Amino acid sequence: HTASCRMRVIARVITHRGSALNSTSTRSASTLARRARERAVVGNVAARGRGRHVMANSATTTPASFIDAFNDEYLAKHKTFEDNFWATKMNLRGNDVEALTKSFNALETFMGDAETLAKTRELLASKDVTDDQRIVLEQIEKTLKCYIVESKEAVALRESAIAKENALQAARNKQELGYTDVDGKFVSATPTVLRTKIRSSDEECVRKSCWETLRANGPFLCDNGFPAIIAERNRFARALGFEDFYDMKVTQAEGFNKKKCFEMLDGLEEATRPLMHAARDRLKAEKGEDATKGWNTAYALSGELTQLIDPYYPFENAPEVWGRSFGAMKIGYKGTTMRLDLCDRVGKYPNGFCHWPTPPFKKTDGTWVPSESNFTSLATPDEIGSGNTALTTLMHEGGHAAHFANIVQGSPVFAQERAPFSVALAETQSMFLDALCEDAAWQARYAKDRKGNVIPWELIERNIRQKHPYKVMALRGMIAVPYFEKALYELPEDQLTTENICRVADEIEEKIQGGFSGRPLMSVPHILADESSAYYHGYVFAEMAVHQTREHFFRTEGYIVDNPKVGPTLEAEYWRAGSGKPGFLGLVNNLTGKPLSHDAWVKELGEDVEELVKSEREAYEKSLAEATSTSDVDLDMRMLFVHGDEVIADSAENGGFLPACAKFKSWIHDKWPKTVAA
Questions:
Q1: Are 191 and 380 within 8 A, CB to CB?
Q2: Contact 18/6 with Cβ under 8 angstroms?
Q3: What is the pTM of this model?
Q4: What sign for the dihedral angle of Cα 138, 373, 249, 546?
Q5: Residue 154 pLDDT
Q6: Are 638 and 652 in contact (CB under 8 A)?
Q7: In whole angstroms, what is the distance from residue 421 CA to residue 409 CA?
Q8: Which is nearest to 67 in space by CA: 369, 413, 336?
Q9: Backbone phi, then psi, for 588, in 5-degree steps?
Q10: Which of 283, 286, 249, 250 is nearest to 265 (CA)?
Q11: Cross-strand partners of 369
Q12: CA Rg, the chain, in Å?
């Protein structure tokens, strides 16, 4: 079986994965959202003298008591910050930016305590430490080394940058966005709706208006402190001995520096540059010169198809589809409590992400502490294309949640999403699972309209023929983000002006994507937050691993969709270790049997369309013939559907996963009546 036909859009602001230029994810979705793979942040020891930790001071501390005390205190501070993060990003009642900043600094202070690091090293040198305790202590040491800051200047710079970032987020929460409709009237719209309309609106004037609104995001950000944030991030990183902020982030997260990162990216960029130019020439020949304009490309590639395919992805069915698909692959969540806020609304953070207020771990007495996860996407159920993009984001962020829920180690630091967790490792899991959405075999089982009719093969074939030649555009849109951020952080501080920043963004779009993007670089939410900035390269390396992993499963198992061996294999080979050894490159090598490379990805880009159509049709027909259904779904989790402060459904109170899904579906129909009539 060949790799699936899919136009990848990683870490999107819940933009359609099949749209070549609207986004690069969720991530991601992310979308790559997405998600947010979040905070590889260096810590703050300014308050080190206030309330020293008992575990660091006691001369009689044993390895077990130290680990227990560290885990308890870390978890308390981590959860407080994450609760504030969720409240702020979801714009909940009473959310407090000051509380977010305070809890963030408290977590940094704890993680930046030099005496805790010294005690960790003292215990590692002890003869009394067991092998299991050594593994945990080494990971604590590795994590703390990402956070220790001795310089008071650096501490002040970090706190100042975070405060400025939070102020920018507050300004964005109040920003009024919208577009001009065909009648010349202004219509308020979230970033998600703007991107959806660029993909699907039949009116070019509407698409252009939406695109211009996204383009205007650059000056808005710069007017609200973005240049100062870049400057202070760089000052902070240089105070720690790094070349710049990008160099610091990639070194902490992936274990290699910026130079190595871009050596890997440069090879991919050079190899795919001719394919990109050929794809743009083909688009001009097929659709006309105007098809390459930023507001037209995504529509030219998917506008009509989006409308035709849309009925087979009703959003209200998405949670059940996700549950059935994951359940068939024997993916479980080890007792997780998951909170899902899936629908778009004004003031909500414009990117799908999954965070963990409680990272899972096994206590020294063997007690299992299951994860708690907060999971968001940005569906507008009655917008054309929203169901498909939302479902893909659900698969993506649900993949993140499955990964982190199944990390089984002796401390929550193995399962927290900050440094030293590899961005590439985290994104490989989510992207591997959301990739299923464009496999013909998966669509045969799960892409159904509200009456239960399966998406016809003719639409899938048309999708392949129209999109496969342009798949390279998704790749180029993906790599444009790290190239832009590299250039951004390499600008001299006195050149960090609105004009220069926007000019650099335009130049990168022209060089990497061949022209203005439908998803302007300055509208990519990942570049704003400390937790998600300067890590987009991780999506690219993850994409390499996704193709290599898919190739491995097709070679060894013959199929992936509903294969009950997939979940256990991922859990054992990719998930269990968390951020511990052997690391991203080692895990990929262990599962696939060979070092990471972009060979499988490039092979798919060059695949003959006719061969792809043939193999995908065979997979579609086989999947239809063998399809079965179960009466229940058990993912070993408690699931709560929420919408801001409102609790819609709770699987613990409503009788299980499927009854909670049914209650959520009813709520969707009440809030968006057009979904009932569709």
A1: no
A2: yes
A3: 0.80
A4: positive
A5: 84
A6: yes
A7: 14
A8: 413
A9: -60, -45
A10: 250
A11: 361
A12: 24
Strands 372-379 and 353-358: antiparallel
Beta carbons of 97 and 170 less than 8 angstroms apart: yes
Which residue is listed with tokens 């401390």?
411
Does the pLDDT of residue 442 top 70, yes or no? yes
Helices 537-556 and 423-434: crossing angle in degrees, nearest 10, is 50
Query: In DSSP terms, which residues pair with 448 in a beta bridge?
Result: 454
Which residue from 106, 70, 110, 69 is spatially nearest to 85, judged by alpha carbons? Answer: 106
Per DSSP, the three-state class of 343 is strand
Name residue 249's amino acid: K
Q: How far apart are the first and last CA of the chain?
A: 35
- Report CA-CA distances (Å) from 420 to 307, 413, 581, 596: 42, 9, 11, 20
Token pair belonging to 418: 């900050």
The H-or-E segment that residue 377 falls in is strand 372-379
Q: How far is residue 368's CA from residue 575's CA, in Å, rounded to a whole number?
A: 16
Type of residue at 459 = L
The pairing of strands 336-343 and 637-643 is parallel
Could you give the CA distance from residue 671 to residue 668 in angstroms, rounded to a whole number? Answer: 5
> What is the four-CA torsion angle of 141, 147, 148, 150, rounded to 10 degrees?
170
Question: How many Å apart are CA 289 and CA 292, to the nearest integer?
Answer: 6
471: its two tokens: 């798949």
**Furthest-apart CA pair in the chain: how many Å?**
78
d(CA 516, CA 502): 12
Task: Identify whether the C-beta of residue 642 lies closer than 8 Å to the C-beta of residue 289.
Answer: no
Is 150 in contact with 114 (CB distance < 8 Å)? yes
Q: Which residues contact 575 (CB under 8 A, 6 or more apart)?
A: 402, 403, 406, 407, 429
Q: Please answer whether residues 481 and 536 qualify as being in contact, where contact means their C-beta atoms are separated by less than 8 angstroms.
A: yes
| Sheet containing strand 336-343, strands side by side | 353-358, 372-379, 336-343, 637-643, 646-650
- Is residue 539 within 8 Å of residue 32, measured between CB atoms? yes
Does residue 526 register a pLDDT over 80? yes
| Helix, strand, or coil (residue 333) | coil
Pick from 313, 450, 453: nearest CA to 16:
313
Decide: helix, strand or coil at residue 560: coil
* 160 close to 150: Cβ distance less than 8 angstroms: no
- 455-508, pLDDT tens digit by residue? 999 999 999 998 899 999 999 999 999 999 999 999 999 999 999 999 999 999
Give the tokens for residue 484: 């832009």
